[in-house]
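Case study 2.
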Amino acid sequence: MADLAQGGANGQDASDLELFEKYLSEDMDLDMPGRGDLREGVIVEVRPTELLVNVGSKRDGVVPQSDLARLDPTYVKGLREGMTVDVVVSKQPEDDGVFVLSMADALQQRDWLTAQQMLESGEISEHKVIGYNKGGLTVEFNHLRGFVPASHVVDMPRNLSEDQRREELEGRINGSMRLKVIEVDPKRRRLVMSQMLAEREYRSQAKEALFKKLAVGDIVTGTVRSMRSFGAFIDIGGVDGLLHVSEIGFGNVNHPREALGVGQEVQVQVIRIDTDNQRVGLSRKKLLANPWDGIEARYSVGVVVPAVVTRIAEFGAFAQLEPGVEGLIHISEIADIAVAEPLRMIKPGDKVTVKVLRVDQKRQRIGLSIRQAQDEAAPAA
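Prediction:
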């Protein structure tokens, strides 16, 4: 039995030796590239309609014009003798012929390898949206096309009609998005990516890093992500901070949409940090000029000015003189004492003329009168 094994081993050695001798004597190429192989080659000659490329074997290969036409014209113009390029063997030589090579296929094959590496590593990268279909978005991935299913697109509304869905997807063309590779299948030419998973991981990493360096008083630039009646959520780099409606500005803001828009960049100041619950409070108002500064010079006692009624209270009405500056019209200063229900005479939104009675810059209060402004405007009897 051992002799048989030994004989088999000797036979294998003899076969290997024979192959080696044949290689030396007959100029046989053991490293002959096979069809579909990806190789690094060196440009030997730049011809008018093709490239001659040496791929390390005994014979050179040709990249035909039909393949060069698939490449970026600017890139092709820059090709020179001696440059190293990636090629794929499209056709093996017959007799004394040459290999037919493809640089376009090589670029794609390199991209498939890159995509596989990204799938294994979980790397997040940014890509441009170039189209859409019924199922989702198509994106650039170097020389390939990636696909992002609609279910993996961030902020994609549900229960849309076909027209609404098409409009929603079409609106994202030419935009860019962070993506994570979730499926690579070169044979079926399937490269599937996810914005949802990428954003979730990116924001988690960014949030952790941001909370380590963020401090109350910091001034940061963020993007409005969404709005509610009580305020706007601002993305300040992986963390959504709350800009309460009272901190948007000095004017009377009933809803954030009156002053902000989704996607708008805003500069805000950090006013609260809750590390345990990972919440951040923001203020835009603190970065704006205070309209109460110099108020006494602009509205001296006795001056008559226009105002807009903003709200009604049991004791009177409030009126805005300018954004961020409201004064109180006491019920006794709305109309003559003979009027039974003076509050019924005005409503929010009414434009009125008022007389400034008192100004307290420190307490940010102004006393106003409609009645006295009307008395001054009335002609003498």
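Residues 23-28 have pLDDT under 50 and may be disordered.
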